[in-house]
Amino acid sequence: MKRMGMIFRAKANKALDRAEDPRETLDYSYQKQLELLQKVRRGVADVATSRKRLELQLNQLQSQSSKLEDQGRKALALGREDLAREALSRRAALQQQVTDLETQHSTLQGEEEKLTLAAQRLQAKVDAFRTKKETIKATYTAAQAQTRIGEAFSGISEEMGDVGLAIQRAEDKTAQLQARAGAIDELLASGALDDQSGMHKDDIQAELDRLSGGTDVELELQRMKAELAGGGAGQQAIEGGAGQQSPQQPQDTPRFDKQ
């Protein structure tokens, strides 16, 4: 079972490797980095919002503290020490709240500065990755195009391989048909195969045709010799002798000596 699992994982990994496009992987990684940068920016905005809210509260508390201090002064001026004491007591409680809020404000301000610096660094890394990503994508695309062109010229690509096989099969079939046609012609000429077209001649008729053709040649040769000799009577004698000639007796064909 372990071996089967290993084989399955190996085949799956090979299939995934063939299906993977580095350009798509780079784009996906860049998208994830942008999402992370956006989260950091939202964190900075949240901290800044909290800091601003504390500042508003501090302003309100400080305003109330100033008001209580004025009230204490007025109460002392009017001889109401008890009212002055109450105003100062309330002011002391507000001052404690102001101190606590100032501490929180200082902490938030520090966190905001850290997050802002982190966002700036992350932004720089994302920008650098984007530049590198586009460079790698352009290089990969160029290499892919160059590989395809090279395969097309060398004929080792899958498409060109199929075309080459088709051409080879066509040439083989053509050569086979030509050889078959030549063999049939030779067999027909030798008489090994019967001519089914109805134009077949037996061997006797073929011999007669050959002798008849030879006689015609002899007669034409005699006529030409007679014309060269200028003898009209000789021409008539030749033609008369030819009329008595029988195709079945080629041995009686008159012969003339060369001039």
Structure overview:
This protein has 259 residues and is mostly helical. The chain folds into two domains: 155 residues, Orthogonal Bundle (Helix Hairpins); 48 residues, no CATH class. The C terminus is likely disordered.
Report the helical percentage: over 70%
Distance between the termini: 107 Å
Low-confidence stretches: 242-259
Radius of gyration: 59 Å
* Alpha plus pi helix count: 6
Count of beta strands:
0
Annotated CATH topology of the largest domain: Helix Hairpins
Percentage of residues in strands: under 5%
Could you say how many structural domains there are in total?
Answer: 2
| Average pLDDT number | 77
> What string, H for helix and E for strand, traces the elements in order?
HHHHHH
Shape: rod-shaped
CATH architectural name of the largest domain: Orthogonal Bundle
What's the story with the biggest beta sheet?
Answer: none
Secondary-structure-based class equals mainly alpha
At the first level of CATH, the class of the largest domain is Mainly Alpha
Any descriptors?
disordered C terminus; 259 residues; mainly alpha; Helix Hairpins; rod-shaped; single chain
Strand-helix topology:
Elements: H1 2-19, H2 22-77, H3 81-154, H4 158-190, H5 203-229, H6 232-244
Helix pairs in contact: 2-3, 5-6
Brief digest:
With 259 residues, the chain is mostly helical.
